[in-house]
Amino acid sequence: MSIQENLNHIKSSLPKHVTLVAVSKTKPIPDLMEAYHAGQRIFGENKIQEMADKYETMPKDIQWHMIGHVQKNKVKFMASFVTLIHGVDDIKLLEEINKQALKHNRIIDCLLQIKIASEDSKFGMTPHDASDLLQSEVFLKLKNIRITGLMGMATFTDDENQIKEEFTYLKTVFDTLRIENSEFKILSMGMSGDYQLAINCGSNMIRVGSSIFGERNYS
Ligand SMILES: *Cc1c(COP(=O)(O)O)cnc(C)c1O
Asked: 23-33, pLDDT tens digit by residue?
């Protein structure tokens, strides 16, 4: 199936309140343009330099989401244009994003990444640390960032029950933190293999790559 067909197939099955981020990491510009011509305007990348290069060449009505782990020293390369940073897990990183956003006179929306997977390799904060951060004096002074919700990645496993438990847990954390954080509205969870499950568990933003663009080749 073509990229356009894949996209249409996925979009036709999505409830209206769910936003689709097309994860285009490692894929060439013509593939992204095919998705663009099929109407897709939100793209997700996990490397800042790659995202900045694609931003330069692609139409300017695209919203770029940074979904990967962010290195502090590279924030400056995306601060002028990034729409949403999904993977924030540290106050020092938020301070840097705030500093760079201020230079561009912008407010940058961010999601806190919560670790829900059992693998050590996955990043993220504990719900307790997220809650502390949101109430900390340092955070409350940052006027050029806005935390609009949470992001999480489930364990890479065939065990649907485990994935469901992890997503349900993140939804509970989201609902709890939402009570005291009026700007919370986005729960980013679900990828190609598990987005239906994620939506059933309360996700309203999914990040889908290979089901749209095909398998990635990292070699
Ligand atoms: C690569 C990636 C995705 C998309 O993965 P697919 O399985 O190809 O849909 C989603 N979220 C994050 C954080 C990723 O790094």
From this structure: 999 999 999 99
Please list, residue by residue across 97-134, b when 16 or more beta carbons sit within 10 angstroms of its beta carbon and e when fewer do.
bbbbbbeeeeebbbbbbbbbbeeeebbbbebebbbebe
Residues with CB under 6 A from ligand 1: 23, 25, 46, 67-68, 153, 191-193, 207-211
Q: Distance from the CA of 134 to the center of ligand 1, in angstroms?
A: 26
Domains of the chain: 3-212 (3.20.20.10)
pTM of the model: 0.96
Q: How far is the CA of 165 from the centre of ligand 1 (A)?
A: 19
Q: Measured from the CA of 86, which atom of ligand 1 is nearest?
A: 13
Interval 67-102: pLDDT, tens: 999 999 999 999 999 999 999 999 999 999 999 999
